[in-house]
Amino acid sequence: MKILVAVKQVAALDEDFAFRDDGRDVDADFLIRDLNEWDDFSLEEAVKIKETAAEGGAASSVEVIAVSVGPEEVDESLRKCLAKGADRAIRVWDAAIEGSDPIAIARVVAAVARREAPDMLFAGVQSSDQSFAATGIATAAFLDWPHAAVVSQLNYTPGAQRALFRRELEGGLLHEIEIQCPAVLTVQLGINTPRYASLRSIKQAAAKPIEILSLANIGLNAADVGESGSASRVRRMYIPDKARAELIDGDVAAQAQRLAAIIREFKGAGTGGGAA
């Protein structure tokens, strides 16, 4: 059986940064990139299932495949997945994918899932850079598979038709439910403790191939991705104006007088003249 794990290489801001000339993103030279934290937990959960199956005598029964969408620099995060226990790594890229929103990315992941026919698909609840929490659930919609979000505990036997899991709800509530497989689960932080890759596994991962797929390889075209295939687009990115705060002292009359003056200032009327 196969478990497909969708992973993302996220970007964090350096201390100093500048926007691109088009104003729609931060200049790539000012970004620090790494494997998304949530995806690290989902990968660990898949590897744990594989190891449990191996302990039961089915050493080759579970294959963990990490898949990511992005340019060549994403290989660094995929090799980290290989070093932590993934059996294969797939990267999908085409120039037309540039500018894709989470929905368009989900369309790509779903196409890879149809190609690989996994028994389960794991993804992190959200990414640490954009926090849309949309890709995993949108992938399930494109596949028409059962899905669940914010999974904090999973009980799944490889090859089983159903999986039992617990998910977090608002207000500290927990929801325990059974789901039919294949299914898409988005995994929450804390479901396990992600392992550190050993030096030996890092060296082995560096020698493993990463399968590169184009849009044509997965049955998609340029209209399915990029801005044309997205439900949203970035118009501009900017640093918001710094807010001001003032503690108004005095009695009620003094506070009211100062508040009226602030309102006049805000409206551009100045502090003198006019009706309060």
Key terms:
276 residues; alpha/beta; Rossmann fold; nine-stranded mixed beta sheet; two-stranded antiparallel ribbon; 6 helices; globular; disordered C terminus
Could you provide a short overview of the structure?
This protein is an alpha/beta fold and 276 residues long. It is 28% helix and 23% strand. The protein has two domains: 2-229, Rossmann fold, CATH 3.40.50; 243-276, no CATH class.
Helix content: 25-40%
Q: What is the name of the CATH class of the largest domain?
A: Alpha Beta
CATH third-tier fold name of the largest domain = Rossmann fold
Number of domains: 2
Structural class: alpha/beta
CATH architecture of the largest domain: 3-Layer(aba) Sandwich
Helix and strand run = EEEHEHEHEHEEEEHEH
Uncertain runs: 270-276
Which strands sit side by side, in order, in the main sheet? 9-8-7-10-6-1-4-5-11
Give me the Rg, rounded.
24 Å
Tally of extended strands?
Answer: 11
Q: Give the CA-CA distance, first to last residue.
A: 74 Å
Shape: globular
What is the mean pLDDT? 92
The major beta sheet can be summarized as:
9 strands, mixed
Which superfamily, in CATH terms, is the homologous superfamily of the largest domain? HUPs
As a percent range, the share of strand residues is: 15-25%
Provide a count of the helices: 6
Can you walk me through this structure?
There is one protein chain. By secondary structure, the protein is α/β, with parallel strands linked by helices. The protein has 2 domains: 2-229, Rossmann fold, CATH 3.40.50.620; 243-276, no CATH class. 28% of the residues lie in helices and 23% in strands. The protein contains 6 helices and 11 strands. The protein has helices at residues 37-55, 75-83, 102-116, 135-143, 199-207, 252-266; strands at residues 2-6, 9-13, 31-35, 63-69, 88-92, 120-124, 147-155, 162-168, 174-180, 183-187, 211-213. A 9-stranded mixed sheet has the order 9-8-7-10-6-1-4-5-11, sandwiched between helices. A two-stranded antiparallel ribbon has the order 2-3. α2 (75-83) packs across α5 (199-207) and α3 (102-116) packs across α4 (135-143).
